[in-house]
Specification:
It contains 4 helices and 8 strands. By secondary structure, it is α+β, with helices and mostly antiparallel strands. Strands 2-1-3-8 form a 4-stranded antiparallel beta sheet, covered by helices on one side. Helix 1 (about 5-25) packs across helix 2. The longest helix has 21 residues, at about 5-25.
Length: about 190
């Protein structure tokens, strides 16, 4: 668990990354910062951006790629400028931008051989879920339970996100769960 000052440092770092991207019109390397040991540990993260309550970008990694601080810096830029679902963020959008950070636990493999076993294993409202089969994969962060509280619908939507039909199941699907410490700010109305 991060304390309030560590959370504030990460939110500030995410905003600095986005501002640097707006100013430089390119990805800028993470600056060398002096922060405590927790932010220098290897942790995976996602950054979710919203404007006026609407999703504006969400990018991250499921496994650590550098320190937590470096991941937040990189994922904030990617969420603002490289999420393929959205055009790059414009400076006019920045004042209304809400930044939300999810720090992920390590992936835990789930030994579910059937869809029913998986539904009995996942913990609604707690688990993020990763499904992978061959070259296709998809994940939902734990926060998605707020929009999809039914486990069956959560799983159907995740399969469609992976490019499969809602009723598809195969014995070569692999599943992992993770939890997330999530926090953010809300500036827009």
């Amino acid at each position: 668990m991060l304390d309030p000052s560590q959370r504030h440092a990460l939110l500030t770092l995410a905003r600095q990354s986005i501002l640097a991207g707006l100013r430089e019109q390119r990805r800028v390397p993470c600056p060398d910062l002096d922060h405590d040991g927790v932010l220098d540990t290897a942790r995976a993260s996602f950054i979710t951006l919203r404007t006026s309550g609407n999703l504006r970008g969400c990018c991250g990694t499921l496994e650590p790629q550098g320190t937590l601080a470096e991941g937040v810096w990189r994922n904030a830029w990617s969420s603002a400028f490289a999420d393929p679902r959205f055009a790059p963020l414009q400076a006019s959008e920045y004042p209304d931008l809400d930044v939300h950070i999810s720090i992920l636990s390590p992936l835990e493999p789930l030994p579910a051989l059937t869809e029913d076993e998986l539904l009995q294993t996942i913990r609604p409202g707690i688990d993020g879920l990763l499904l992978r089969r061959a070259n296709a994969q998809a994940t939902f962060l734990p926060a998605v339970w707020e929009q999809l509280p039914d486990a069956g619908e959560f799983l159907r939507q995740l399969k469609m996100k992976a490019g499969w039909s809602a009723d598809f199941w195969s014995d070569d699907i692999r599943a992992w769960r993770y939890t997330a410490e999530s926090f953010g700010e809300q500036r827009s109305a």
